[in-house]
Write a structure and sequence with these properties.
The chain is mainly α. It has 4 helices and no strands. The protein has one domain. About 85% of the residues lie in helices and about 0% in strands. The model has no long low-confidence stretch (mean pLDDT about 90).
Length: about 140
């Protein structure tokens, strides 16, 4: 699978994760803090979305690193073949431009992952506080 195919695949996953996280936010905003079953379901949903966001983050971060090296070496070989002077800092900047979309995808996955973590923390806190109010053990 080449760069473009991997980019397209993970772009679709990022869009899906983003849409699902937004739906989760919308559900959360309509909940009452004492609605235990709905909060538990939200926790399950957030945990599930977190799994996709974490996988997307790890994969796109790895792809970013791999494709950066590939782009750097390709540019270096092209410059050497044409007799141009090879300057590492310039190659870094040019290779970095080549992978900018992957970096953006990685950042999207990281943001969605962090959002899910906050949802999970909040849901756990709400579940524990409702359990204490009802007189049950957490």
């Amino acid at each position: 699978m080449d760069y473009a195919a991997k980019l397209e695949k993970w772009s679709k996953v990022a869009k899906s994760v983003t849409v699902t996280t937004k739906e989760l936010k919308d559900k959360f905003n309509t909940l009452h803090y004492s609605d235990g079953p709905a909060i538990k379901q939200l926790l399950i949903d957030a945990t599930s979305i977190y799994g996709y966001a974490e996988e997307g983050y790890l994969v796109t971060n790895s792809l970013k690193k791999n494709f950066f090296v590939h782009a750097y070496l390709k540019l270096k070989l092209e410059k050497e073949a044409s007799g141009e002077k090879v300057v590492a800092s310039i190659l870094d900047k040019e290779a970095d431009k080549e992978i900018s979309t992957l970096r953006q995808l990685r950042d999207i996955f990281e943001a969605q992952r962090n959002t899910c973590i906050e949802f999970m923390r909040t849901c756990r806190t709400l579940i524990q506080s409702t359990t204490r109010v009802e007189g049950k053990e957490a």
